[in-house]
Write a structure and sequence with these properties.
Layout: E1 6-12, H1 18-32, E2 39-45, H2 57-65, H3 80-85, E3 88-91, H4 94-103, E4 112-114, H5 135-157
Parallel strand pairs: 1-2, 1-3, 3-4
């Protein structure tokens, strides 16, 4: 029997802080759980500000301190094919979710959700953008992403 990977796209605005963090953390969790072959992860931004650039240096540094390697990731913008290709398209916040909803064809709208919906124990439902703040904002993003990544893999592994 052919095992078809579940494809998940994480989306924020510029694809240099939140969504690459979600991609890297979730991929690491899947690898550690022996589930890597069951999933395909990617990330993108709703805006094209940082196409081809690596994640923000602060994001890479703090992720590395927790054992996540984001060094191979490069920024890209969401494109029309993403709506067809991915099974789940998870926005980091409502603003980016709304942009995705406007761009997404009707037949793929069911794929769009907020990422933190998979972190039921969290008091927040959006991953805040840490770009203009200090290290504590990036640490907070990592905390939220770790909780939601765990919930996401648990949910999708049951299917």
């Amino acid at each position: 029997m052919i095992n078809i990977a579940v494809k998940v796209l994480f989306v924020c605005m510029g694809n240099i802080c939140r969504s690459p963090t979600a991609e890297g953390v979730t991929r690491a969790f899947a690898e550690r759980a022996g589930l890597a072959a069951e999933f395909e992860f990617d990330s993108a931004g709703t805006h094209g500000y940082h196409i081809g650039e690596p994640p923000d240096a602060r994001t890479r540094k703090l992720a590395a301190q927790r054992g996540y390697d984001l060094s191979l990731l490069k920024g890209r913008q969401v494109n029309g094919y993403d709506f067809e290709r991915f099974d789940h398209i998870l926005a980091m916040d409502r603003s980016n979710l709304e942009l995705l909803k406007r761009a997404c064809p009707e037949e793929h709208q069911h794929k769009l959700r907020l990422f933190l919906e998979f972190g039921p124990s969290l008091d927040e439902d959006e991953v805040p953008d840490p770009y203009y703040g200090g290290a504590e904002g990036f640490e907070h993003v990592l905390d939220l992403v770790e909780a939601a990544a765990s919930g996401l893999l648990e949910t999708l592994s049951r299917r």
